[in-house]
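Sample A.
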Amino acid sequence: MHRNTLLIAALIFSLLISSCSKSSSRPTDLQVGEAVKSLLPANHKIVRITPVEGIPGIIEVVAKIDTQSVVLYLDKSLKYVFSGSLMEIATKKNLTAESQNIQ
């Protein structure tokens, strides 16, 4: 079961990356904010919007809902969103968990 979940996540992530190669410009923070607005409750506050280092075309959005941090990943076309843990295979570092700890 766990292996199937990882396989599905890898496939989705591959689709995100392949969709990003069509355009080279990054959306503005305002555009990213508008894109996630419908996905999060009205009381959310965006804490940070940054490109994911080492993965071209993927943007990380860290938002706070009350005291809880939420991390979303979007492709630069703002058509796809990925919610879940992003891990670096070589180091087994959970990049999402690190971002959730932002104050």
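Sample B.
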Amino acid sequence: MAITAGISKVVLNVANVFESARFYSEVMGLERDPEAPDERWGWAWFCTGEPGSEQRLGLHQGRMAYEDYSPTPAGPRHRTVHFALHIPHKNLDELVERLRSKGIDLHGPASHDWVRAVSYYLFDLDGNLIELFSPLG
């Protein structure tokens, strides 16, 4: 029995929250969380799940919460990450074409036979690897 019900949020530390927020909204097409603080507070939040779900992608510029308690030495503690957005297969071709029309360098498709899915990959402005994960049927 799983103790978790999924991932609630992923927060990326970004160099410029205004530029990154524009990338995730205008290029990636993610919907802003209308209830969340905006970039003036160093944050941007996006909804990444079904309407009403608590799944969020957060962008933050500056020190992260509890950073002073990190077991790693002082200095840069946050590195680039690889995360996947679940893209319903019926939406994949449209998203791929939209990203390509905006000049985004996409890699793939890559087949994942063990989970019956296909993925495309791209990098955001901070070098994070975004996987567009699309289950087949």
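B remarks: The longest strand covers residues 117-123. The radius of gyration is 16 Å.
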